[in-house]
Amino acid sequence: MKKNRTTHWMAGVLILLFAGLFLVLTGRFLYIQATAEINNISLEEWADKKRTTSYTLDAERGKILDKNGMTLAYDRPTFRIHAVVDETYTADPEEPKHVKNPEKTAEVLAPLLDVKESYILKRLNKGIEKNQFQVEFGSAGRRLSLETKKKIEKLDLPGIGFEKVSIRYYPNGMFASRIIGLAQKEGGKITGLNGIENQMNKTLSGKDGYISYERDNYGTKLLDPDEVIKKPQDGNNVYLTIDQKIQTLLEDVMSQMQKKYDPERMTAIVMDPHSGEVLAMGNRPSYNPNNLKNVDNWFNDAISTPIEPGSTMKMFTWAAAIEEEVYNGNELFKSGSYQVSDQVSPVHDHNGGEGWGKIPFDEGFARSSNVAAAKLVWEKIGTEKFLDYLNAFDFDEKTGIDLPHEKKGQILYNWPSEKLTTSFGQGTTVTPIQLMKAATAIANDGKMMKPYVISKVVDPSTNKVIKKKSPEGAGQPISEETADHVLNLMESVVAKDYGTGQEYSLKDYTVAGKTGTSQISKNGKYLVGHGNYIYSFLGVAPKENPQLMMYVAVKKPDIDPDEVGSKPVSFIFKNVMENGLHYLNINPDKDKSKPVQDVEIPELMGKDAAEVKEQLTKQGLDVAVVGTGDTIQAASAEQGDKLLPDDRLILVTDKPVMPDISGWSTRDVLQFADLLELKVEILGHGYAVKQSIKAGKPIKKGAYLGVEFQSPSVNDKKGDNNKKKKETS
Q1: Is there a contact between 621 and 602 (Cβ–Cβ < 8 Å)?
Q2: Which residues of 262-277 are buried (b: 16+ CB within 10 A; e: fewer)?
Q3: What is the separation, in whole angstroms, between the first and last Cα of the chain?
Q4: What are the catalytic residues?
Q5: Are 450 and 276 in contact (CB under 8 A)?
Q6: How far apart are CA 228 and CA 199, in angstroms?
Q7: Do residues 464 and 497 touch, judged by C-beta distance below 8 A?
Q8: Crossing angle of helices 480-495/432-443, nearest 10°?
Q9: Per-residue pLDDT tens over the stretch 422-476
Q10: pLDDT, tens digit, for every residue of 650-660?
Q11: Would the pTM count as exceeding 0.90?
């Protein structure tokens, strides 16, 4: 009895415990059912998250196009293949969703992926052995074209699927790659790394969208999936100022010169000097953004690599002297060497300091005389005033071109020697784009233009122009008259038989330009030896109304001992400019029916003065006969010399009398004084307006002749020039 009583008591306790536990659990379940919460976590939200799948809808990156609408960069759809090897993914054996036959799958896929059958089979079997859900096929299974994807889909292979992956594609390969730049996938999104791709990354990227819906354990969308879709906002299209035709011309000739001369570096820029639009820009070495291999330099040398400009800087030295009204192009100076003091190293002309004797400053420009440049800065302009002009031409700051990673050069101007060498482009450094910006002032009536490469931004869905760029002025460092004067000097560099740029002459267009040969500094010393220089040329055409301006620089070309370093430079310049101008339908400005030809001087001594004057006047020379005699006894040119039309030739007969020399240049007067052995005094500069010996008076050897000169612009334009300086300072 006692045992039964204990058993009943224990049974009652257990019944009470189980009843209590049941009530607690039932209460908990009722609470959860009523509130749909556990530990403040909503079960409905948790279930929704578990059932809901979502993924990003990538925005298509905007295109980059040239000024005429030629596509230069776009998002190209590619596909990545995968194979599901988990047999539990198959719900219906009649419709398998996993790879059922690895051997057959490997056999048919191999030729389409361009790999061995064993490579695919090994990956499939390894995935099955390790109980993986799916496998991929490395680089062979990525970046498949739409055509390849369709061929594989036609095979109807169980378990084979694809994922769309956009890549940035550049249809022209290396074409303008330094400008267009490079964009690659970073963190699952295409991002611009350099060039326009980087500069305009936000504009090109757009905004991603997404899609979400509820699905079952097998990924199948539910009948009521509660689907939410936010459409992506594609990136905007960016149009460049680059002209695909001119850029192609440039790329082709640069590639030819790269192959022939294997230079260390090449840079070239083509611009519209009136607007600042960059029509073409190229560098070597370059790279193909579709196939990156052995890229040594990611930077755009045209805007990121300062170099010594060499004699191209002389354009701005002469411009400063002319603008300051201290320049007399006919004034003679002694070329060869020039030293301002014992403490300052002498300046030598580029022909070993030999020079060309006493020559006018105009001729010094055409011959690219370092001595002439140094004299202009030290004796005429003044070093501090010249620095003002360097700053006015913006050599002390970046151009602000709409490309990333721009750098500026450095004006080296602390010591007297540095101030002298800066005058002819040594020591001081600039980037090619800085040089081009400054040169727009010379080609554009004194107005300097800011260079740019982005033309407009367009919404691809509406074709509406969101932003459009217009030409932007960057100051007026010189007057229109000065710009014209410098252009005339630049023309002489190419046109004169003693000019350093004769090889840059074009067939149909008149060229004005300036050559440059820059020394290369290495370990604190300048390199020496044949070819160890940067050879360059900056030129415009047609000269009277420049439509294109081009700069070319070639560093250390591998030239033969008998070749000049400017050979690849002139080849690039002439091909691009001649063909580029014709492509733009610019009318040739050279009169082919009456080509400008040099006049070769015949034997003069003892000839009849009247007959010679008539003959040479018909050929275009300005012939002045000094004296009342019939026979020529002296002349300002010798047999075989070549003069250009409108050049002055002085013929001296017996019984010389003083001619009217009004309008004569300084050079003409000095030649006349040498012929008659006169003591001449020059007052002022420009052209002769007064003479101490009256016209018609007999002339004796050793007589004194004083001549006053005046520039045509002194009275008429001085005030205007000063006004412009104040406005731009």
Answers
A1: no
A2: ebebbbbbbbbbbbbb
A3: 123
A4: 311
A5: yes
A6: 34
A7: no
A8: 110
A9: 999 999 999 999 999 999 999 999 999 999 999 999 999 899 999 999 999 999 9
A10: 888 888 888 88
A11: no
